[in-house]
What does this fold into?
Amino acid sequence: MKILNWLNRPYPFIEELKNKILVSFSFGLFIYLFLVVFLPFGLDDIIASKSIYLMGFGWITALVLLFNYTISPLLFPKLFDPDRWKIKKEISFITVSILIIAFINFKYNSIVGYQFAEQHGLGYFILVTVVVGIFPVTLIVFVTELFLSKKHQKTASDISLKIRMERESTEPVTDRIIEIISDTKKDNFEINESDLIFVKSEDNYCKVFYQENEEIKTQLLRITLKAVEKQLGHFTDMIRCHRSYIVNKKHISRISGNARAYNVHFDKCIETITVSRSFPKEQLLA
It folds into this structure.
């Protein structure tokens, strides 16, 4: 049960291209250095062009990972949704990558290493690639998740404390009327600034979460979140903290954190929203 709980924990998927390149070629370099230093699986018997031959395995690892990090999310955007990425998805992603690497290593050895390297079946290359790759990668995932969880929880706790302190010291301000003009014009929505909790993007629509007579309600409008953000530009407490959310800072009760991201919690609304990893967390303060 503990293992299942761990596998379902949030985990950050690499989104920036420079980080994808760095991680991919770091693993490629690791594989090359591992093979050069330890010469496992009979590699020490190779005499001619050993370094160049072993470098090929490193390049295969780097290019396969880079392809999977960059192209796969474009082909399967829902599967690679960063907001739903978990440890089990990360390990599955790595496992699939290792199997692809093993197959290409097999073909590489049978073609390039035919004259001087010992030939093995596909099953052997899968076993070798898994032994060399999966265990250190799983260890890295474990350590990374533990480190990021503690780091984000500490930051979230500090921000939550500041939010509580600011609430106690902030004087009430004059409530203003917010009007969101939808694309259809006839579905325009008016609400007191203090009653709007957050706005969520749903493709070409937006769902407004608000309170009315101590009850949480929603209103669906045909308008993009970018257009809503523009209309709310002069309301300083309305801030876009994620590509899918605009939040009213006055309704934030606390911040929580996990390895993947920070989450915003509200006073009366049970919904939580995700904060983009690139968003400056201090801006959530009033």
